[in-house]
Each structure stands twice: as structure tokens, then as C-alpha cells.
Amino acid sequence: MKTYPIKADLDIYIDPYAAVPQEIIKQNPWHWDPQETNHKDGDSFLYTDASINWFELGEWAIAEANEIRVPQKYWWWDEENEQAMHANESVNHCPIFETCTQWMVQNDYNEHNTRYFKFANHELGAFYEPLKAMFAHKLEDMTMSLFVQPPGQTMPTHVDTFSSYMRKTGEFPDYSKLRRFMTFVSDWDWGHYFHYGNHIMQPWKAGDTWDLVPGIYHGSANCGVTPKITMHWSGKLK
Amino acid sequence: MSNIYTHNTYYQDHLDKNGISLENHYEIGPLEIQLDINYKDFLQFAEDSRHRAITDKEYKPRPFLTDESMRQAVLSQFIGYDAGNTMETNWGIEPEDDAKLKELLGDANFEKMNLVKETSLVRLLQYNPGHGIPLHTDSYNGFMKRFGPGKITRYFVAISPWDWGHFLQVHDNMIHHWDPGYALEIKEGVWHLSGNFGIAPKYTLTVTGYDVND
């Protein structure tokens, strides 16, 4: 197998700032410097949750993923129609689009290195109610997603733009009100990587819970040998 | 119920069988040094000699690997590593490129690494975003076949400035935020991996050679 030719000339510096919606930048000023050491990017750790059996949830998620076999989600560029695609959905009309062009036109992200399994809301079965209870008091119109990222896959670096929320509600996001929380479902393992701005989150424990405060460039990858599993809550702050 | 075709923890089983665990800390402090380089010279070299680069080297089993390296490559393929996420571009196979890279690195840096410059092999590696090299150990088999046995040392050297999504993991140490010239000795048999999951290419060197004290 050959990888895709990269569609634009490689540049040692691609400016991620240029791809982020201005509303986010204005509302959430951030340093935007990978070399910055004087930062507070790691300050939004909340707690290690013990209300959920995270090991059981992880086992359940891996069993579900093994049942499905084919990850439901992946990013790819539809060359013919010039569409940035998230699985079967075009995101050309979404605020993530410019970032997608940095991923998939200026770089080599595609369906071979961005795949993940996603289990959302009631798909979480018996875990739905206890997971909902963790943040129902903080978020309204809350959606929940569990991601299983297999070895060799990545969620390329981005700022949360809440495109799923936009697709679900039909509303353009009001970034001053939207928020995302995240819990690591599985313990840190070989090759599991998550950077939140300039803070590298390794090593983590299952149950470690973060307030993903808006406007900070972040991404994750699994260059290891076991699945990386995370749980996400998104909604409007009450 | 899994069978031999659907069983999905072969790699973890291999690590467990060999007693490899992240619970055991591996100290890298004494292995780190800072070299004095002009990283832009290396990037310019890459651009000027891109037509001579090896551009399609994905991580996969190859006939000349050691049995252990072959096993690691097979185990990696089984869990999802392929040309879509492990593609590497490299320079240095051609003697003129190896010589040029040595010249760019300079005598003082070889002295800092305690390496015999003449017989050292220097490779410039480029990993584009979305690509990495999965968990593996190095063997110096290729070097020994070419130059003979001895006290052999290998260094990872950062070339491009660290950017978001660039990382090197050496056993339980996640290494990031490096400056150009950051160098770390990677000892034979130590488990490591690296990746680039940002938006800018990652350039590094591997420098392999005889210890001057050998």
C-alpha cells in the first residue's frame, strides 16, 4: 500500500492559529507557542473519579469494538468533491473545516491514521445513567461519547469547535457557553499520548478527569499496543 | 470467545513474557546530552537532496531483520500499523549523504557523543504528521555486519524544533519539548517508539557508531 501524495508542499511551519474560528480566539486567548514553558495548560485537571468502574467500562468498550470490527469514525478528504469528511458526513460548512484542510490537504491525515470507535449516549447501555450523573448538574443539552482509539491512530491536533453539537442542533455554537469534560477510561500505556496545549498528560490513571477549557490546541495519539479509551461530555454550561 | 485469528493481545503477551513493564522505571538522565547544531542546515540539506531520499520506508517485517525485530514488526502489523501510519522519509543511505550529514553534525558533536566519526552512520529521518514508528527495540545487527563487532552506541538527535504532537517514548519516559540538538542515547534492547501527530513534520537523526573508548 502507498500513502496518499500530500496535496500541498510541506511547510516546516503551518500556522494552526489561522485555522481557528475568530470567536474562539477572542473569547479564549491563549499563548499559541509550542516552545512556551511558562503556561497553565495543565491546570484544568479536576479529580480522579471513583464513582464508575472504569475497568469494566473499558472492557465493555473493547468487546463492543471487537464486535463491530470497523471503526465508525475517521477523517478523510474527498478529492473529487473537495469535501472534508468525517466518516460519511461533510464538515465543509462546520467551523472545523479550516483545521481539516491543515490535516488532510497540507498533511497526510486520512482514513488510515485517524480511525476510532465511538459509542454515544444510549449506546453506552448500562453505563449511560451513571456516566450522565457525573456532569448532568453542570451541563445542559449534554451529549456523551466514548472513544476507543486503536494502536496507530490519532486525533490530530485541534481546538474544539463543537461541530457535532452544530450538526445535532443545527445551531452555530456559542463558544462562550459550550464546554467539554474528559475522563481517561484506561490507564496510560505504551504510546498513549495526549497533549493539552503544552501540557503532556502522561502518565494518567483510569478515572483522571479533565475540564477541557476552550481554546487550547490539543490532540491525542496511540502509538502503542493497546487501545486508548476516553470518555467525553459536551454541552452548555448551566 | 477469541481464537488464534481474533486474539488481539499478542504484542502485550510478548512484552509480558519478556518481563517488560512500565511499572519499572528506566532512568534516562545520564543518557541525555545537548549538541550544538544549526538545525536549519539540516532542513536545507533535506530539501536540496530530497530526490535522493528513501521516501517509502514503512515499518514492516524485512528479510534482513533479526528474529526479534521481525517478531516486533509482525506483532505491530497485526494490531494495525501499516504504510498509512508509519511512513518514513530518510537520508543517509547514500555515502555522499552520510558524509554530508557527518559534516553538518561536526567534530565537536561526535566528541560529545564519544563516537568514532569515520565509521559512524548518520541518518536523517522525517516523519510527517499522522506517522510514527511503533514500539520496538533496536539491534545493531546492520552496523555490525558492515563494520564488525564492538562497543556500539546509538543516539536520537532532535533536529526540528519541538512542535505539538511530536514525541519520543523511551520505556516509561515520554520525551517532548526538546530543543534542536537534544540527544539521547538509545541503548540496545531498550523499548521505545516515536510519533508525530501534530501538523508540522518532525526531523530527527539517528547516529550509530563505535564508542571512542572501545
Task: Please give a structural write-up.
The complex is a heterodimer of chains A (238) and B (214). With 238 residues, chain A is α+β, with helices and mostly antiparallel strands. Chain A has a single domain, classed as Jelly Rolls (Sandwich). Helix content of chain A is 18%, strand content 29%. Chain A has five helices and 13 strands. Chain A has helices at 22-27, 54-68, 97-104, 128-135, 163-169, and strands at 45-48, 75-78, 83-86, 89-90, 117-120, 139-149, 153-158, 178-184, 192-196, 199-200, 208-212, 218-222, 228-237. In chain A, the strands form three sheets. Chain A has a six-stranded antiparallel sheet with strand order 1-11-8-13-6-5. In chain A, strand 2 and strand 3 (83-86) form a beta hairpin. The termini of chain A are far apart. Chain B is an alpha+beta fold and 214 residues long. Chain B has one domain (27-57, 87-210): Jelly Rolls (Sandwich), CATH 2.60.120. Chain B has six helices and eleven strands. Chain B has helices at 10-17, 39-48, 67-78, 95-105, 107-113, 141-147; strands at residues 32-34, 54-57, 88-91, 121-127, 131-136, 152-158, 166-170, 173-175, 182-185, 192-196, 202-210. In chain B, the strands form two sheets. Chain B has a seven-stranded antiparallel sheet, covered by helices on one side. Chain B has a four-stranded antiparallel sheet with strand order 5-10-7-8. In chain B, strand 7 (166-170) and strand 8 (173-175) form a beta hairpin. The mean pLDDT of chain B is 94.
